[in-house]
Write a structure and sequence with these properties.
The chain has one domain. The radius of gyration is 15 Å and the shape is globular. The longest helix is centred in the last third of the chain and has 26 residues. The protein is an all-alpha fold. Helices cover 71% and strands 0% of the residues. Helix 2 packs antiparallel against helix 5 and helix 3 runs antiparallel to helix 4.
């Protein structure tokens, strides 16, 4: 278990909800966020990367549909965008100016 406080449910959500390629995408986004943007390894980072991954899933999935299905896709995409903005803003407020040493533990935790 990493030294950073992460709820067990987050790892379960990561394992159950994401495909292998989505897990790789998630981990790349987490690494970029920690190393390049200086974001802290925390639950907000998990949610930020998770919603970025869902956004990627929506962009790959066929966007066709009529009526109610199309409405649900558009609303779902809008909700995901809002969640990304929310978590990104929270991460920016906690931003550090040097690399987070716990970042490696965060990546390793979800890579197991």
């Amino acid at each position: 278990m990493p030294a950073i406080p992460l709820r067990k449910e987050l790892k379960e959500k990561f394992i159950q909800d994401l495909t292998p390629s989505e897990k790789i995408f998630f981990l790349k986004k987490a690494q970029e966020s920690i190393m390049l943007k200086g974001y802290l390894a925390c639950e907000d980072l998990f949610h930020y990367c998770y919603f970025l991954t869902l956004k990627e899933r929506f962009s790959i999935s066929p966007q066709r549909g009529e009526g109610c299905l199309r409405f649900l896709l558009v609303e779902g995409a809008r909700d995901i965008e809002e969640a990304i903005k929310l978590y990104e803003e929270r991460l920016k407020n906690k931003k550090i100016h040097r690399s987070d040493t716990k970042g490696y533990e965060f990546i390793e935790h979800f890579s197991e």
